[in-house]
Amino acid sequence: MRQTEPLPSSGGAQPLLENIRVIDFTQYLPGPFATLRLAELGAEVIKIEPPDGDPARHTGVDNESDSPVFLAHNRGKKSVVLNLKTSEGRLAALELVRSADAIVESFRPGVMEKLGLGYEEAMQANAKIVYISITGYGDKSPLAYFGSHDINYMALSGALAQLKDSAGRPIHPTNTFADFFGGIAASERLLAGLVSMQHTGKGSYHVISLAETMVSLMGNHVMIEKLNGGQNGVEILNGTIVSYHLYETKDGRHISMGALEPKFWKNFCHAAGRDEWVSAHFSKAVPDNPIYLQIIELFKSRTLREWTEFGHSVDCCLVPVLDAGELADFPLFKNKGIVHDSTGGLRQVKMHGDVNQPDEAHPPEKGSSTSDVLKEMIQDYRIKAGSASSNS
């Protein structure tokens, strides 16, 4: 593992992945999210962009500025522009591979091989390389070469079927869960590969399937379906009982109740002045349950703010359903600056709240590190050439 200049860290703690270099060939969201998590742990992430830049720079915007999708997931990285379709670009990329500990790519299966940058070529350049391919459906499945997006992985995995309205229709998520879970799976596997390399001295190749990652979240559901035919997982967790439910407040907002354990439910009932509800702990959240109807009315008698204060003073697993714009000021996140405004004025979200973060970790301008990184490569090559010459 090579020596690199560590990113500055608030508080002075040594970054956990200091001296780890990751070459990031990914675009859009799953890969950049994975490498962002690594960058915030101290890894040097060199983002390889085509001449037109990562397409995520232009996602959802019709002007010259970088899009929120790019700005939110690429801070603290170096941007190097290479045209991988040219021999010069390929050779430069291979030279970077020689200096790296890991590679992450997210093209369709076979694309990196066509570019001469697949695992076999990378391993010839660096036998210790940990190589991660992020795919939709793996590299050998019947769907391996089909285009796809987050909504497709959600649908195929069974996860989307768990998000339904009162009429049984699946709800279109406003977050790309498969992309994010896939990114976490990719960073997890990369770290496992680095640990293995430390023990064996050998690199490794790993194919992450976003669809399979989402299926891995369905363990409870498939077990229960096999045993009794239930389609909605653990029954007491799917909104069917009064003590584990979402309730509307006076101002049209919603509060989440998670009082599964008797002590929490008793705390709630006592603080609400309704001790007669204690015995209804696991009663059904259905219209013909009078206690359920009474609970609905109780929650509608106070605002979200009032219920939030109630939840802060009573240990009963009661917290508000927050919107994106409320996260930065919520005490749990505000105290550690989990959601914060960077010195550049961008609102960002920390990947690891308990780890000291770089003080100045901005999203890179396209190609801003190309000259410096290529210059370093040339210097390293001359040092190696000189050493070989002196030993001959």
From TrEMBL:
One Pfam match: CoA_transf_3
Q: Which domain of life is it from?
A: Bacteria
Does the keyword Transferase belong to this entry?
Answer: yes
Signal peptide positions are none
Gene3D superfamilies, per the entry: Crotonobetainyl-coa:carnitine coa-transferase, domain 1 (3.40.50.10540), formyl-coa transferase, domain 3 (3.30.1540.10)
**Record keyword Transferase present:** yes
Q: Where is this region: Disordered?
A: 354-373
* Transmembrane spans: none
Keyword annotations of the record: Transferase
Q: Which GO terms describe its molecular function?
A: transferase activity
Name by which UniProt lists this protein: CoA transferase
Organism equals: Mesobacillus zeae
